[in-house]
From TrEMBL:
Keywords: Membrane, Transmembrane, Transmembrane helix. It is a multi-pass membrane protein. The keyword Acetylation does not apply. Pfam families: PTR2. InterPro entries: MFS_trans_sf, POT_fam. It is found in: Membrane. It comes from Urochloa decumbens. Belongs to the major facilitator superfamily. Proton-dependent oligopeptide transporter (POT/PTR) (TC 2.A.17) family. One of its GO terms (cellular component) is membrane. It comes from the Eukaryota. This is Uncharacterized protein.
Amino acid sequence: MESGELLRRPGPSVDYKPDVRGGWRAAFYLVVVAFLERLGFYGVQGNLIMYLTGPLGMPTAAAAAGVNAWAGTVLVLPLLGALAADSRLGRCRAVLAAGVLYLLSLGMLTASSALSASSAPSTTSPAHVTFIYVALYLLALAQGFHRPCAEALGADQFALSDEGEGDSSSRASRSSYFNWFHFSISWGYATSTTALSYLEDNAGWTAGFAACWAAVALSLAVFLLGARTYRAEQPVVDGSRLVQTVRAWAASVFRRKDASSSTERLLILNRDPEDGKGLVAKLLPIWLGAMVYASVTSQVYTLFTKQGSTLDRRLVTGLVVPPAALQCMISLTFIVTLPAYDRTFVPLARRVTGHHAGVTTLQRIATGMAMAGVAMAVAALVEGRRLRVAADAGVVDRPEMAVPMSLWWVVPQYVLMGLAMVMADVGLEEFFYDQVPGAARSVGLALCLSAMGAGNYASGMLVSAVDWATRGSGGSWISDNLNRAHLDYFYWLLAGLAALDVAVFLYFSKRFAYRSKGEP
């Protein structure tokens, strides 16, 4: 591939040198790119609220609101990036554009931090805060272009026809690719939450942001280094056609009053099976099931952390473990489990089922959803014990004191939730990639991410509703003083919700007709 070929507008393209393009050689570059990109992105996201409340001197409430709004935007923008890639830019050009946006946004953060390092937080000007937020939203836009497009481009290296035709080796390799992609980004997350957080806390924010900039610069360099190995992109559907698909999806979800217009768009989709006959009706139940699942798993980053903060977090060496560091257990579970799943479970299951991935994607997703419910049940049991220990120790009304119960009690619920994500998160991304038209697969991955985002919003609304409903009956289940709260009741509620989600999901999955011929 000539250097300029990567930048050509997408269109009808062919694999000019099939013997040297695509396959694991090309996918390996993109797996490394994913590690470096996640390292740079999570290096900012993981410690963002500390930066806003520290050097910028923002009030905690204002900083939290700002971070929440930004995080919501991060989850929505992949739809925009995927739509632009699949209708106009193409996946290679979208990843390149994301790299430029990453360098610009992280460069702005680094420069801003360096210029304000000698200033007191109280002297931070509104213009400076605005500059920071512009950089942050450029960073969100970069992530929105990069995440779905880079992952879809990697899967494209194991070429199948749009109908899913191809040898079993290609299908198995593509399924394996999704496992290794998540293995890579798990290392990126684990490294950023340890090494980069330490760097930001001890060497300063400028050094931390500069390290993030260097990570994405290296990511872009690796992407360009592998340019000669990438398989040419699939033909891209007409932009207006793809927009009609997304509008039809939105109309079905939000039930616009303009029913005739929505119906007309759906009929357009149904006339051509190549563009996804029955796409909305088929995928919507799976999308909703993923949303409910995400509302359960989102507790890892909120209530699980608060629960862990009340425990005795001292290690034998005297080191006190930060509550948020427990989230590393999720990444470690990915790092340990994914290679074993890919190299041991899949070959053994393949002998029994004859399926190229051992189990179907929907079976894998359902297993993960069930594990999430088990994790919440275990969390409820642990929380019940924590409340009893707090009462026996007489620290119920002394929330500033650690409950005399080891931090290790909450590790199993983190590991179980990590196993749930290994099964369901990876399975959902592979499923949405497979079950949309070939030229819209970036959008398919973005739809998966949007389900996760919607689940996070739903979780927030559920927490608020439960807090409001239980506040007047002897104390909220989610009180500020967790020793007086009943997180165990809330966890049991989520375990029941997860069980209901699995039951409904199994009902629809048994009736689901896979779009790809490679699936049973």
